[in-house]
């Protein structure tokens, strides 16, 4: 993982997004994922909604490729696109098969309010955000997932649970999150006060979206 200096821009954004950050990383949904106790019905609805999240997330990655200020950054971002469109997509399809998800729910399900809120945030950022703002939203989505997945004490039996954890707790994903943070720190160094404040508001809003997304499938 790329080294991040202590009290970096990304660290400051995360610290100022508490208590929501910890609420995502320690969400009871993730604990139930670890011990494999999420009922199929709940896992199905979560994955169906998340597949829609991933659609907009992929478009946001595309906007980051377009908005990046250098070729090396485009290459790193394209590497993540490769994962989302291969291993991760295959995981969704195999899980949908195992959970009996109908074609309509794979392609065009009724969206939860939490999915709509996250989608709106990603679309607004994609269409009108600076490269720093796009990185901010990408970083929240990936870093929260790394942080909860890293807490997994062991592998649950079902592949639907186990592989969802593994996709977010492996050395490549850790390196990707390290890159995102370092990139946000690099770009953040050139921002003025107003632009940094906009990134903070986006970071906080995206973190809240993550809490609401898990809440929608819990309790
Ligand atoms: C809601 C959500 N947030 C983040 C991730 C990780 N890409 C995800 N799959 N879903």
From TrEMBL:
**Which reactions is this enzyme annotated as catalysing?**
4-amino-5-aminomethyl-2-methylpyrimidine + H2O = 4-amino-5-hydroxymethyl-2-methylpyrimidine + NH4(+); thiamine + H2O = 5-(2-hydroxyethyl)-4-methylthiazole + 4-amino-5-hydroxymethyl-2-methylpyrimidine + H(+)
- Looking at the keywords, is Nucleotidyltransferase present? no
Ranges for the Thiaminase-2/PQQC domain? Answer: 17-217
Entry annotated with the keyword Acetylation = no
EC number assigned by the record: 3.5.99.2
This chain's function reads: Catalyzes an amino-pyrimidine hydrolysis reaction at the C5' of the pyrimidine moiety of thiamine compounds, a reaction that is part of a thiamine salvage pathway. Thus, catalyzes the conversion of 4-amino-5-aminomethyl-2-methylpyrimidine to 4-amino-5-hydroxymethyl-2-methylpyrimidine (HMP).
Family membership: Belongs to the TenA family.
Q: Which PANTHER family match?
A: BIFUNCTIONAL TH2 PROTEIN, SI:CH1073-67J19.1-RELATED
Which protein, by its recorded name, is this? Aminopyrimidine aminohydrolase
Q: Supply the source organism for this entry.
A: Saccharopolyspora griseoalba
The upper taxonomy is: Bacteria, Bacillati, Actinomycetota, Actinomycetes, Pseudonocardiales
């Amino acid at each position: 993982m790329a080294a991040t200096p202590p009290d970096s821009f990304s660290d400051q954004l995360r610290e100022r997004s508490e208590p929501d950050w910890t609420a995502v990383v320690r969400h009871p949904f993730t604990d139930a994922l670890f011990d494999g106790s999420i009922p199929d019905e709940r896992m199905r609805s979560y994955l169906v909604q998340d597949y829609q999240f991933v659609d907009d997330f992929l478009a946001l990655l595309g906007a980051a490729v377009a908005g990046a200020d250098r070729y090396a950054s485009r290459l790193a971002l394209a590497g993540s696109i490769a994962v989302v469109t291969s291993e991760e997509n295959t995981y969704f399809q195999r899980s949908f098969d195992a959970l009996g998800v109908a074609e309509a729910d794979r392609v065009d399900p009724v969206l939860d309010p939490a999915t709509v809120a996250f989608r709106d945030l990603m679309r607004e950022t994609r269409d009108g955000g600076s490269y720093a703002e796009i990185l901010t939203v990408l970083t929240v989505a990936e870093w929260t997932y790394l942080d909860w997945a890293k807490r997994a004490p062991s592998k649950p039996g079902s592949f639907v649970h186990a592989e969802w954890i593994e996709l977010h707790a492996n050395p490549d994903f850790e390196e990707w999150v390290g890159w995102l943070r370092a990139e946000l720190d690099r770009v953040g160094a050139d921002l003025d006060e107003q632009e940094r404040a906009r990134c903070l508001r986006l970071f906080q809003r995206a973190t809240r979206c993550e809490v609401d997304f898990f809440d929608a499938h819990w309790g």
